[in-house]
Amino acid sequence: MARLDSPDAKTARVLSHPLRPQILDVLVRRGEASPNEIATELGVPLGTLSYHTRLLRDHGWIELTREVPRRGAVEHFYRAVVQPDARWISLKLDEQGWAELTGLLTDVSDQANAIQERSSTRRSRKARSSKLAILHFASPE
To answer: What pTM does this model have?
Structure first.
């Protein structure tokens, strides 16, 4: 199990809420956006979006690109620094479905390790760093 302050635990924390990958997706698609623009696009309250934006910023996943004065306030614009290929889905599974999905994700993890091994033999090409996070957990209804 990863320590709570380990890079793996921090990555899991950043991805632990479905809104955060959505925010990253908007920033990747648009290049730059403010929390107000993102909240409008995703249909979520600005306060909620701002909280998740700050968390992404504090963990280095997004960065401030500019500040624009707006009616006595300052609107902050951000861009994605990390560009994950993230999917977030909610499922309702019986015990057999839970076991099947757990097995599938174990296979995916094993295949990812095999790809890593093959890739390490081809080091003559430029290597890209990657983190793979597979989250499968019971959640409240």
So the answer is: 0.65
Residue 62: helix, strand or coil by DSSP? strand
Please name the residues in contact with 50: beta carbons below 8 A apart, sequence gap of 6 or more.
35, 39
- Listed in sequence order, the residues at least 6 apart from 110 whose beta carbon sits closer than 8 Å to its beta carbon are none
Q: How many domains does the chain have?
A: 2
Domain identity same for 104 and 41: no
> Is 1 within a domain?
no
Distance CA 113, CA 39 (A): 37
Answer yes or no: is 67 within a domain: yes
pLDDT tens figures, 100-130: 999 999 999 999 999 988 888 886 667 777 7
| 84 alpha-carbon distance from chain centroid | 6
Contact 24, 56 (CB under 8 A): yes
Q: Domain of 119?
A: 89-141
3-50 pLDDT, tens digit per residue, is 555 666 777 777 778 899 889 989 989 999 999 999 999 999 999 999
